[in-house]
Amino acid sequence: MEGEKITHVEQALFHFRNNFNCAQSVFSTFGPLYGLDADTCLKIACPFGGGMARLGHVCGAVTGALMVIGLSHGKGVDDGEDCKNRTYTLVLEFIKRFQEHHGSIFCSELIGYNLSNPIEYERAKAENVFTVKCENYLIASVKILETMLAL
Question: What is the pTM of this model?
Answer without folding.
Answer: 0.94
